[in-house]
Each structure stands twice: as C-alpha cells, then as structure tokens.
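Hi R.,

Quick one: here's the 7-carboxy-7-deazaguanine synthase sequence you asked about.
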Amino acid sequence: MKKEKIETLVHEGKMLPLMEAFYTIQGEGHHTGTSAYFVRIGGCDVGCHWCDVKESWNAEKHPPTVTEKIVDDVVKYSDTVVVTGGEPLTWDMTLLTQMLKQKDVNIHIETSGAYPFTGIWDWVCLSPKKNKLPTKEAYQKAHELKVIVFNKHDLQFAEEQATQVNNDCLLYLQPEWSMREKMIPIIVDYVMQNPKWKISLQTHKYLRIP
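And here's the predicted structure, written out as tokens:
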C-alpha cells in the first residue's frame, strides 16, 4: 500500500500506529487487579522525562495497523479494553471505539488529556502532565485523576489539577517507579492528611507481569 494511502487511513482512524497489544492485569488506579486487554498506540509529544515507554513517542516506529484487526484481537481475549500510549488522543479514536462498542466491549482510556477527545469511553483515566496540560473537556470527562509523583512539588501540582476535575472524579497519587522508595512514605503521609486522595501503585511491576 502506498505511503500516501496509509497516511490517509491513519488520519481517518481506519489504521492506527500500534506499538503493542496484550492481555494482562490492570496494575494502576481504580481498576487495579482486574483483567483487561491493553492496546498501546504509538505517538506522543508531551515528553515526560521519566516516561517508562519512551519508545512509544515516535509513531513512525510503529506499524499502521488496520483498526478492524485491533478490534478482532481485543474480543478474542476480553470484554474490557484499555487504550493507552503514547498519547492515544493524538489520533482519531472515533472508529475504533464505535467498532468496539458494536462488540459490547467496555472501553477505557489512559490519557494526558492534552488533545481534544474523540471516541466513546466508558472510563477515562486522566493523567495530566505539566509539559502540556489537559483541555477543559478532559477535566470534565475524567472518571479518575491519576497524578504521577516524581518529587514533592508534584503534590502541589496534583492539588491544582484536582480543583479542575468534576466532583465525582476519583483522585489518585502514584509514585514514579524509579523514585518509589523515596516518594512512597511521603505519599502515604500526604494521603493520611488529605484523605480525598488514594494511592495508586504500579502493581503489575511488583507482580512482574506486562
């Protein structure tokens, strides 16, 4: 297929730069411990220095995959999918989510919220980044706010973000993995003093699963 044709199909959401897809246990946030099929879409320009999937940033490194095939693979394994990245909202998620809904799949997204929303989502995990803040729409759509804590200053950032989400949004603080030994005691103390927050841990890494 010609490059120009592929680019058109990606722009229309009929193909997506798929980095990886796998069936596993959700390790973070509200749905920790539940099974789900993960679809990791390549492409992100938010640029967090501590990102643990920097290989996802360059979308050109990940093959454009027919959206229908992605959906077919999801339903082989699970009735719940987590669309993550990279930053999945870099791309038009309309067709992907429409096709998943036709298969009665519960659709979750993990996003920085930096780009306009496309698609139909049953659960929105908003993980805002200082480099490129979420849109107003993202704050209103969020079911959970998950702030990554690399240092103490991120606690203030978390509070600023919490003032902007809807009243029903669940609030999570998650230690950045490389700083977990230093930050977990600080986060534990903070949550005990500010019980509106909960702690999210990357339990999949403790379990040594994808």
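DSSP finds seven helices and nine strands in the chain.

Cheers,
M.
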